[in-house]
Every structure is written in C-alpha cells, then in structure tokens.
Amino acid sequence: MNKINRLDPQTISQIAAGEIIENPASVCKELIENSIDAQAKNIFIDIAHDPSQAIRITDDGSGIKADDIPLAFERYATSKLQVFSDLKDLYTLGFRGEALASIANISKVTLVTRTQDQDLGHKALIREGKLAHLEVIGSPKGTSILVEDLFYNVPVRKKYLKSIQREVQVITDLVEKIALSHPDIAFHLTREGKTLLQSKANTPAKNHIYSLLGREIAENLIPISFETESYKIQGYISNNKLHRSTSDREYLFVNGRFVRSREIARKIRSLYHTLIPLNRYPVFILYLDIDPILVDVNIHPQKQEVKLSEENYLLLILERLIRSALIPNREIPSIKSQDLGQKEAKKPVLEEKISIFDLAKKEEEKKEAEEAFLKEALKEEPPAPKEPSYPLEEDPLEVGYVLEDIPSYDRVLKLDKEAHGKRSLELKLEEIDYLNACFDTFLLFEEREKKNLLVVDQHAAHERIRFEKLYRTLKEETPHSQVLLRPLSLDLSFSDQEKLKSLMPLFEDLGFKLETFGRDHMVIREVPSSPLIKSPQQFIQDALLEIEDKPDIIEKNIYDIMRMACRSAIKSGDRLSEEEAFQLLRDLENCEIPYTCPHGRPTLIRISKREFEKMFLREG
C-alpha cells in the first residue's frame, strides 16, 4: 500500500470545485442565485456557442464593494451568514460559501462590479483562484461575471460534459425554472445575441407563465392558495384537460428554490386518478413558503431536494386543497381548429454559431466586446419580452378553502355534486339530436341551440356508468361474512399482532372473524363476501400498514372496480340503436363524474360550428 500523503491546497480546491461545478449549467445556477440574493431586478445570461468556453451573468443588483472583491473568491467566505446559528434562519437561496471560489479555481473569471454608493466600478481578473489584477473602471451599478475556459485545468472533468446542444438545453431548462420561481425579476437568456428565453417582471402571474410555458398551459391552470403560521402555499394546478406524457411540467418551489419531492409529486398525481388518462402526468406550479427552521436545504449537493419537517401535515393540506379546487373546475374537452395535427410546442432548436468570444482573439477585441455587452446589458430598461398575443385574465391567488376530512373517492363524489348538482354535464337533452355512429365507436350528437357537435366514446362513457354503479352497489351493501371450510393462517410480526388485536372490532365490522391460535399465531375463520377481496391475508397485512381509521375495502380496491367496469362495458365495435345511444348519454349525464372514464380518458368532446367553419376557411 502506498504511503498516505496530504494533498496541497491547490489540488484540494480543484477537487472540491469539480464536485460542486459539474457543467456550465452549474456555473449559471450559482451566479444567477448570487444575483437574486443581491436584489437584482434584471438578470442577463449570455452564453457562447459552446457554453464551457464563455458564460456571462450580468445583473443590476447591489454590487460588490472593492474591499470585498478578494474575499468573494475565497472558500467559505459569504455575506449570507455571520455565525453558525444563522443557518437555521436562512432566507436566501441557501449557503454554499465555496461557490465563487470553486468556479474561479477551474476557469478564468473576469468580474466587473459597482455598488450604488460608488462613483466608479472595479474590474478584477481571477486566475487559478487568486486575484491577478484589479483596476478602477466606469461601469453601471450591479455585477457582471464572465467565466471562460471552464475545466481548462481539470481536463478529466471536461470529458464528462454532454454534447454542446445538450448543455445548452440544460441551461435553458435551468433558467426557465428560476424565472418561474421569481416572477418579480426579468430574465433574459441569449446565445450569441439570439434570445432563447425571456420573461418580464411584475406581470400578472398567468401572463408570466404564458411567456415561459405557452398558451395551452396558461389557459388550463386553476389557482390555489392557503396559509398558516408555518406554511404559505400558492400556485396553479392543471384542470382535467391538461396533462403530459412526462413529469417535466411539475414545478415545486420551496422558499424560492426549485426542488423535487417524490412524496409531494406522488400525492398530487394520485389526486388525478380517473380524471386524466393512466400514465399521464398533471401540470402544477406550486410555491411553498415555509419557516426556514422546518427546511434543510443542504441535504443534496446541488440542493435539488429539501428535507421538510412535518411533511405528513403538509401532504394533508395539499390533498385537501387540491381536491377542493380541482373537482369543481372540470370541463368537457373541446377541439379547436389550430389543434388539429399540432403537437405540443417543442423547445426551439438552438442554432450552431461561432462565439463572439472565440472570434475576439486579441485582448483589445475582447475588451471591446466586453464593454459593448455591459453597456447594452445594464441599460435602465431591459429589452421587453414579446407580450402575449391575447390577454390572460389574472386569477387572484386568494382562494380560501375550508379544509375538511381527507376526501376519499366517496368524498370526491359529494364535492362534485355540491359543485354541479345532479346534472353536472348541463346538457339540454331536448335540444340534442342523435346523428349517427362513427367507426362503430364514437356516437355523434348535435346540440341544436348551442351549435355544437358532441362526440361520445361509447366504451369510455359506459365504463364510467358501470364504474359508478358498481361503486355505489358495493358501498351500500351491508357487509356479509362467509365461513371458511379451512381457516387461513395469518403470519404477522409480534407488533402487527398487537395492532390487529387492538383493531379487531373494525375488522369484524367488515365481516372478518379472527382468532388467536396459540401464543403467537392468528387465524381467519370468516371473511367478507366481497368480490374485491381475493386474498384475505394480504388485505389484512396491507391494511395494518396503512390504517389510520377503519379499513375500507372499497377505497382500497378502486382499481379492481375499474377493471370490473371495463370488462362489462360496451366495447368499441358494438353497434347501438338510436334509443340505446340516447340512453347512454342520459346515463352519462347522471353520473357523478361524467367527464372521464375511470382511467381518466375523456368520455366525450365538443366541437363548435365555428371551429368547423375555420377548418374549411369559411370564417369572416
């Protein structure tokens, strides 16, 4: 074994820097967050053709005092903390005192900065992590940091960078998330002068979302809001018409930082069961302001995850809040002419261009390019982003919901009935004519007065009808027991046995009869006569893991009811008479949740006469 040697400080710094700064996006993230913490209102990000060659972040924040410039690039030097106890009350975007030092150790950094109380600014060159040159220059208030030749002295790290296009896309995604989390700040991301992303500060929230995520998402969002002493929740959730094939439109921000939470994402997705198709994801943009003492921001190297105290309480609040907002805000999907053949807008293809920093080979040319950029970037008014092509009314984030018990599916039905009454589709059957069936699957109806075409998926509609009938029947049945010819052995741990004994009356109410057999064994002698219980032992074991109150066979086996409904529903290809088609529509209208089948697919859609006229160029 080789002798253990103590590494020199330079090597230690480079290793630490390589662990913190993984790619050009890491540089952007650290510098943008510093700009935000410096109270900037306009932040410009300009990247070269290859972002590892040049990144410049310019802001109009508070700037850095001349005396603090050398300290700014030392490890563990920060303006965010004074003593250790400040960590628990951290309201900035977190603390990583070595960020600037790490960047400076693996790149060539040029800093230009001026504070409000200074007449002139300062320009500093940082090489190998050390201040190499400092001079006084004229500059606007704020800070501009140019990072060049990333990983030039750590070539092994450069090997792990992805393709240029991928690195640019990662930066674009990063800036998009940061811009969403700070609607009060204007962001402008450019690549060689070409705008990739732009947001304007202090616009209505939905217009801000529209500028970043597009019209379709902005139009189909429902506002939610809730506040306690420890939590403030604001944001938007998608209605039943908006969903995606991946989870990349799920945005969660905690105290201004984008984070991921499997538990929160899983909980929100579960609330959309039977409302959107299976294997599809809802869209949500949620802002959680939480007392910092309840948040640990440093459990993940890139701070993409946070540890929350009292997480179960937060999940409870979110479930009740989203249920209350989502159920009354569902609609029959409609088709617009521009939607035909049009898929979700893709992010722009980023053109390959030669970097101005690569062209500026001579030092004086570099200086001219730098000063020109500063002059343009730090104007009083930043370039204005393109306004939305239509006005989006701002929904006030002041919805006050009374939070009741956690809604089961049964509670969802009650909420829906309260919101819509018995006829939640609000169809005027006397004004509807049956036209015909299409492809032996889709039933066509005309709404004469409203001049709409209703297209009903006969299988999805009947599946919803059968699901709700089965659900009601099973829910309203008085539990019956059947005696087993041969008792079933129940294999439980000692703690589960004790829990089961204390909960015995609850299981007996369901139709179970359980007995202790010997000192440490239990048997099942009677079971509920329900088609939903296929394995009594497994049901009891699962219930003991999840139980908070009385175990519910129906709620626990929703997906089994869905499968039963699917098997017994009218299939595609089955021909229906006009009378049967009308009866299907009547039964669907009387459903509690008629908009989707139990799997979340639409049961019907609506196409207006005007949309048909547009498709045939008959408008105007």
Describe the structure.
The chain is of the alpha+beta class. An 8-stranded mixed beta sheet has the order 5-4-3-6-2-1-7-8. A 5-stranded mixed beta sheet has the order 9-10-13-11-12. A hairpin with a 6-residue loop joins strand 1 (42-47) and strand 2 (54-59).
Salient structural properties:
alpha+beta, eight-stranded mixed beta sheet, 620 residues
Structure classification: alpha+beta
Strand segment tally: 22
Residue-averaged pLDDT, rounded? 76
Unreliable segments (pLDDT under 50, ≥5 consecutive)? 79-92, 340-363, 384-407, 419-423
Percent of residues in helices: 25-40%
Strands ordered across the widest β-sheet: 5-4-3-6-2-1-7-8
With helices defined by DSSP (H or I, 4 residues minimum), what is the helix count? 21
Largest sheet: 8 strands, mixed
Strand content: 15-25%
Integer-rounded radius of gyration: 31 Å
| Envelope shape | globular
